[in-house]
Amino acid sequence: MTSQTAPKGTTPSSDQIRRAPKVLLHDHLDGGLRPGTIVDLARETGYSHLPEADPDKLGIWFREAADSGSLERYLETFSHTVGVMQTRDALVRVAAECAEDLAEDGVVYAEVRYAPEQHLEGGLSLEEVVEAVNEGFREGERRARANGHRIRVGALLTAMRHAARALEIAELANRYRDLAGGGVVGFDIAGAEAGFPPTRHLDAFEYLKRENNHFTIHAGEAFGLPSIWQALQWCGADRLGHGVRIIDDIQVQADGSVKLGRLASYVRDKRIPLELCPSSNLQTGAAASYAEHPIGLLRRLHFRATVNTDNRLMSGTSMSREFEHLVEAFGYTLDDMQWFSVNAMKSAFIPFDERLAMINDVVKPGYAELKSEWLFQQTASTSGSVAAEG
Ligand SMILES: [Zn+2]
Questions:
Q1: If you measure from the C-alpha of residue 114 to the centroid of ligand 1, how many angstroms do you get, rounded to a whole number?
Q2: Do residues 243 and 276 touch, judged by C-beta distance below 8 A?
């Protein structure tokens, strides 16, 4: 792009950030419920352990518990959301609202993950859980379309690191891929990193590789380089869930030059996608502030960085909120937002031709429109001031 036309410095407004087409790869279904829905579902399903009965107070309780720095309280938040997601109707509703909320926020493509094994307490089978969530996503896509938004949502099935069902869940993910209209697009491993290395689940990853299927692994959030190295070189992950600690293998010298270690070079050379989640990292202490978040350096060094929400309820966030923080911290423009969105779309687990169509037919035209709007506003305000001076 030439300097005459380059809308550099196109700082987007909140409204433009919301309307910009965004792509989300790392979002947990049980981390994104509406507080009002939790209250409704608790009443309907007889769940009696909620700390607050009022939706507004409950929303605040979730954010404060997640902010508290106590792992126990943080994990307690998920016991409540998972606690009310044990029936078919509850799963359909939560998934539908998830798709609706993301679409309302300007997300055009999302991969949303959940662990089927955590939704069996009400007597559902693993298959029934997957089918209920798929149905909810399709319903949410339909409702979004009726409201003038287009979104496509794919599911990632998560296995828990501390449990022993990874192969079973990987087989489940493989069975529900290739569904007409949308289905399960990949697999993930989540849960405490320390003490539960991904190599415990090698059978699941080897199975998925043999099936030519895709997977991401939560790695390099709290635990650092060994976890990233294992996820890539032992397990063969296509993407890194977080991966933010790759920063530990990058040295910024006193003169500003940068030296990458072998692992960081590998990650960048192979264009391995990093599912970065800034707000979530601030809550868990993986970063001290948005301005100090490694995403700034990783973007400058052209890693395949993407922006994600992780747990919208616990972090009180959305894709727009994440970008608002980054625009403020790093002065990002619409060009930067487009770069992150194209990165994410390139890294999605749907087929190449469909990713390309999303980039060329949805993401790029969306940003082009916003940029021309921005230029128009600039021109209008400049000619306005000239007229006033004249
Ligand atoms: Zn996560």
A1: 10
A2: yes
- The alpha carbon of 276 and the centre of ligand 1 are apart by a number of angstroms equal to 9
| Residues 173 and 167 sit within 8 Å (Cβ to Cβ) | no
CA 327 / ligand 1 centre spacing (Å): 23
Distance in Å, CA 190 to ligand 1 centroid: 7
Q: Which amino acid is at 45?
A: T
DSSP alpha helix (H) spans, 211-351? 225-229, 262-269, 278-284, 295-300, 312-315, 319-330, 334-346
In the chain, CATH 3.20.20.140 sits at 14-33+85-378
CATH of range 14-33+85-378; options 1.10.10.10, 3.20.20.140, 3.60.9.10, 3.40.50.720 = 3.20.20.140
Are the CB atoms for 305 and 291 separated by under 8 Å? no
Identify the residue whose tokens are 């399960």. Answer: 184
For residues 324 and 337, give the distance between their C-alpha atoms in angstroms, rounded to a whole number.
10
Q: Active-site residue numbers?
A: 221
302: Cβ contacts below 8 Å, ≥ 6 apart: 268
Q: Ligand 1: distance of its center to the CA of 221 in Å? A: 9
The token pair at 337 is 């937002």
Separation of CA 90 and ligand 1 centre (Å): 22
- The rounded Å distance from CA 123 to ligand 1 centre is 26
Per-residue pLDDT in tens (0 to 9) along the chain, 390 residues:
333 344 455 789 999 999 999 999 999 999 999 999 999 999 999 999 999 999 999 999 999 999 887 777 888 899 999 999 999 999 999 999 999 999 999 999 999 999 999 999 999 999 999 999 999 999 999 999 999 999 999 999 999 988 889 999 999 999 999 776 669 999 999 987 777 888 889 999 999 999 999 999 999 887 789 999 999 999 999 999 999 999 999 999 999 899 999 999 999 999 999 999 999 999 888 788 999 999 999 999 999 999 999 999 999 999 999 999 999 999 999 999 999 999 999 999 999 999 999 999 999 999 999 999 877 777 776 665 444 443
